[in-house]
Structure formats: C-alpha cells, structure tokens
Amino acid sequence: MLFAQVVDGVNDPLTGAPNSAYQVLYKNIGDCDAFAQAKSAFYDYAGYTNMIVAGHNHAEMYLKLNNSWFLVTAGTFEKVNITTVINSGNYVLTNPTYGSYK
Predict the structure, then answer these.
(1) I want to staple 24 with a disulfide (CB 3.0 to 4.6 A). Which of 30, 54, 60, 72 is the partner?
(2) How far apart are CA 55 and CA 59, in angstroms?
(3) Domain definitions of the chain by residue range
(4) Which residues pair with 81 in a beta bridge?
(5) Closest by alpha carbon to 50, among 89, 14, 3?
(6) pTM, whole model, 2 decimals?
(7) 3-state helix, strand, coil in the chain (%, to 5)
C-alpha cells in the first residue's frame, strides 16, 4: 500500500505529543492520532470519504466504501458498524469527508 511506504520509518516517541499529519509526513514522528490524520489526508486526496474516531486513548481512521464503513489497518479492510464503534465510548474526532456517518 502506498501509504505504508510513505510512513515507513516514522517513529512514535511514546509521549502522546504528535497530533498532526504534518508531524508524520515532515517530522517523521507520529502516534495513533497523527497516523490517523495522515491516513485521512491520503484518502481525502484520493477522493474517498473517511473519518477519524477516537476514544480510550486511541484514534483510528475509518473509510467509507459502497455505503459501508471499514477500519483500515496494516493493509486490511475490516467492515464495521460505525454506529456501534461510536456508541462504544468513542467519539468522532473528524467528521466524514462527505455527508455524515449515519
């Protein structure tokens, strides 16, 4: 996957400080929310609807394909019920690129 090649070598300083796509792409540091934002920017550029959901000290980017939401990790696409994900103590960190998650 192209995104994996772009972020290869990015280090997590384990401080919770990285919080933007800029830090991942230009400073080579990142953690879950910074990676989620960089991944979101990548899919935005490609024209795909995505959103970031956060909670429990973690953040993930979810991708919408054919009216279904997927968690994209390590090059795999896991179909999820996004309402269940959000209602499990998580919250929408960034709104979907287009439309709403419902």
Answers:
(1) 30
(2) 6
(3) 2-94
(4) none
(5) 3
(6) 0.84
(7) 30, 30, 40
Query: Cβ(63)–Cβ(54) under 8 Å?
Result: no
Q: What is the mean pLDDT of each run of 10 residues along the chain (102 residues)?
A: 65 75 76 86 94 94 96 90 96 93 84
Residue type at 71? Answer: L
Q: Is 59 exposed, middle or buried (0-12, 13-18, 19+ CB in 10 A)?
A: buried
Q: Is 17 exposed, middle or buried (0-12, 13-18, 19+ CB in 10 A)?
A: exposed
Which pLDDT value is given to residue 4? 62
- The token duo for 100 is 């709403």
Quote the distance between the C-alpha of residue 9 and its chain's center. 18
Q: Is 48 helix (H, G, I), strand (E, B) or coil?
A: coil
Cα 55 from chain centre: 13
